Request: fold
Amino acid sequence: MTKLLDNLSETDPIAIPEKRQLIDQIIEKNRERKGSTMVILNELQNRIGFITPAMQAYTARQLDVPLGAIHGVVTFYSFFSTQPRGA
Reply:
């Protein structure tokens, strides 16, 4: 997990301060909700447009859940994208 966060592309939303702030707000706002993982991932997809592997690792760390739990949801549901659409 740390490896994903240590080798960030400068275009990854986690590396862009304004986007990281938005990610933090989404996580904090929904952390205690029932089904928080799905709620957070849905909101990240809607607001940012995709969920990179680094975003998955960051979200897992912030929620204190295994990365596999986050990655499993992102890869299972077809409406989640790990890169910008059209890229």
User: Anything to note?
Assistant: Helices lie at 2-6, 17-30, 36-48, 53-63, 67-76. The two ends are 24 Å apart (CA to CA). The chain has a mean pLDDT of 92.
